[in-house]
Specification:
It contains seven helices and three strands; from the N terminus they run H-H-H-E-H-H-E-E-H-H. With 157 residues, it is mostly helical. It has a three-stranded antiparallel β-sheet with strand order 1-3-2. The longest helix has 25 residues.
Length: 157
């Protein structure tokens, strides 16, 4: 008996297939994920327009780095990435002057990642960009709905 799984969907009616297609596209996980990716891309686009050298991938590190610094392992875990992939992002951002890394006194195999002065300016610029984007959202959905969304997300997380 073969253990290979069929790449064919199970036999379903047209109505079941249509329902599944809608469910896959409109479930809360997909909507939150797509909204997050769109917002992330908009922030990066706004930053690039302002002359800031960042890529979308960099935000995985920047948004998971504590104010006082974090180990690479902690940042990678928060971002759901491998330590190696996060290390490459840290090296890129360090090369751009946004981060610095030092050895961890508690674990000689680890390094602590921290913002530089330029990195803190990047964070301020990022939140300025976010303010601009949120104003565009207000013009699309209104201030009440945006605040309701913010409240609902706070309640969920």
């Amino acid at each position: 008996m073969s253990t290979r799984r069929s790449s064919q969907p199970p036999k379903m009616s047209e109505d079941e297939l249509a329902h599944l297609a809608v469910a896959r596209k409109n479930n809360i996980r997909q909507l939150l994920l797509r909204a997050s990716r769109i917002l992330n891309a908009e922030i990066v686009e706004e930053l690039v327009c302002r002359g800031v050298a960042v890529r979308s991938a960099h935000t995985a590190l920047l948004s998971n780095l504590d104010d006082q610094g974090s180990t690479l392992s902690v940042i990678a875990t928060r971002a759901g990435m491998s330590k190696q992939a996060m290390g490459r992002l840290a090296d890129e951002l360090e090369g751009l002057g946004y981060l610095t890394s030092t050895g961890d006194d508690n674990d000689k195999r680890s390094r602590i990642i921290k913002f530089t002065g330029k990195g803190w300016k990047l964070m301020i610029e990022s939140f300025d960009a976010l303010d601009v984007i949120e104003q565009r959202y207000v013009s699309r959905i209104g201030v009440t709905r945006l605040e309701s969304l913010r409240t609902a997300l706070h309640d969920l997380v």
